[in-house]
Request: fold
Amino acid sequence: MRLFITSDANYESKIDTAFDGIYNDEVKELFAVKNYGGSLETISIILTCRDPLLNFKQRIRYSKKEKTLYMDIMFDLEEVVRLSHEDKKKLLAKKLSGEVPEILSRYKYEDFNVKEFLNDFMRWIKKY
Reply:
């Protein structure tokens, strides 16, 4: 399983430095060695933190052909800019632990152990 997390954010949000402390090589390896089933091989998460005036919308898409679930996790730029580094990490963990399970449950997978993945995902993210 490939868990891929990146950001599309205004520089001043510094959300990328907050998630660098959470999502590292150890976490990538934790999920890379797991096999939850063949119908979903990648979960791609984009942390989106842009000016609300740009009117960015959340994108969510499951590609059976690519065996990939794509999702945006949206953050309010003004809120994130005001937060300390540690509070940004807490906000990231809160949003990921709330939205990833909900988005994952919207789809039916032929061969993917959602429960086992979410157990591992929540065990990882709850550290923060």
About this structure: Residues 85-104 form the longest helix (20 residues). The chain is about 40% helix and 25% strand. The radius of gyration is 15 Å. Residues 2-125 form one domain.
